Amino acid sequence: MAMEATTVTRELIWRRVMDELGFEHARVRRGQEGTELSGVVLVAEQGAPLRAEYSVVCDDAWRTRRVSVTQSWRGERRTLALEHDGDGHWRKDGQVAEELEGCTDVDLGLSPSTNALPINRLRLQEGATAELRAAWVRFPALEVVPARQGYARVGPARYRYESLESGFNALLDVDAEGLPIEYAGVWRRLAEGPAAPASVSQTFVEALMSAGPSKELGDAAATFGWLVGGWAGTIQDHDADGSVRQSEGEWWFHWVLEGRALQDVFIVPSRNAPAPSGPGANRRYGTTVRTFDRTGGKWQITWVSPTGGAINRLAGGREGDRLVLLGEHHGKPIRWSFSDIGPDRFTWRGEVQDEAGQWGLQSRFDMRRIA
């Protein structure tokens, strides 16, 4: 969420005193456009370390608008994305979530911070009560279910929270921004203070990257979506004289621009490989952006290579068990393709067509998944 220069930023630490098995480090950014709660929760879950990173973006009325969660547990990394229009209509990972219809707030089951959302949104007078329907995120399953909840303001800075389905209730002592100080023997605040400015590079990454594909892509997202992650392998360049230059390379893919594009970073040689030398050495450090043209039904790609000065534009999509993209380079037709595709491998080929119409191999990448 874009914030103006008047943004007030705090950070807080809570300890889970209920069982002494967890901590949370949270950050609060509050500006004219609204508030963002973000943080990292570290807990021992069923004997295994669990790390959950989250962001909750609210508008200026404290209505939940966007939620992202990334969880690492037992060797698996999972993500969750929620969108809310402010009127009780939700999307989960880009799909309509009818089961959450009518929910007003998100409730992250591992975090005390999201109790501040209904407290600030409702602005209850002392002695008043309210019932609400929350989108409750359960960990480690990352399930999202509707939950009937009640809040009562029982003192100037004290609230009673109640789960209207389970009967669980707890007293919350909060600060002026509704953030818990003491959560009835469950969570206790240990520290709070002004936050250092956010890392510009990290903020850029957060603005660029997306948790998954946009719903606008529909089934087309699957064409290249399987590439998301990291790959490494052997890079061969075939020269006109028949010689072959070989290096090791790495290739990283992720959804970007609100999930409307898939971008990669291609690096040869790999960053952990020796630096190349000599005029014929393989060296690439470039990026491709892929977007889907719904009118033409094709994927459009643009490859930019600052190291070689190349900018290539191609278009195409799936042809049988291959992905084929066609374009031109210096007036000659070129063809880039993905083949031999498996869960953990693929082969990429770059070809150019000669005047006789024959395709000649220029490059071949044999890649294996590493992330």
Q: What features would you describe in this structure?
A:
The protein has 371 residues and is mainly β. It has two domains: 187 residues, no CATH class; 170 residues, Calycin beta-barrel core domain (Lipocalin), CATH 2.40.128. The chain has three helices and 25 strands. The strands form two sheets. It has a 15-stranded mixed β-sheet with strand order 8-7-6-5-4-3-2-1-15-14-13-12-11-10-9, covered by helices on one side. A ten-stranded antiparallel beta barrel has the order 16-17-18-19-20-21-22-23-24-25.
Number of domains: 2
Poorly predicted runs are 1-5
CA-based gyration radius? 25 Å
Major sheet strand order: 8-7-6-5-4-3-2-1-15-14-13-12-11-10-9
Based on CA inertia axes, which overall geometry fits? elongated
Pfam families: Glycolipid_bind
Protein name: Putative glycolipid-binding domain-containing protein
InterPro entries: Glycolipid-bd_prot_put (IPR009467)
List the helices and strands and how they pair.
Blueprint (H helix, E strand, L loop, with lengths): L7 E9 L5 E10 L2 E12 L2 E11 L5 E10 L2 E9 L5 E3 L2 E2 L8 E4 L7 H7 L6 E10 L4 E13 L2 E6 L5 E6 L5 E4 L3 E8 L5 H9 L12 H5 L3 E10 L5 E13 L4 E8 L15 E10 L4 E8 L4 E10 L2 E8 L2 E11 L2 E9 L5 E11 L2
Parallel strand pairs: 9-10
Antiparallel strand pairs: 1-2, 1-15, 2-3, 3-4, 4-5, 5-6, 6-7, 7-8, 10-11, 11-12, 12-13, 13-14, 14-15, 16-17, 16-25, 17-18, 18-19, 19-20, 20-21, 21-22, 22-23, 23-24, 24-25
Protein name: Putative glycolipid-binding domain-containing protein
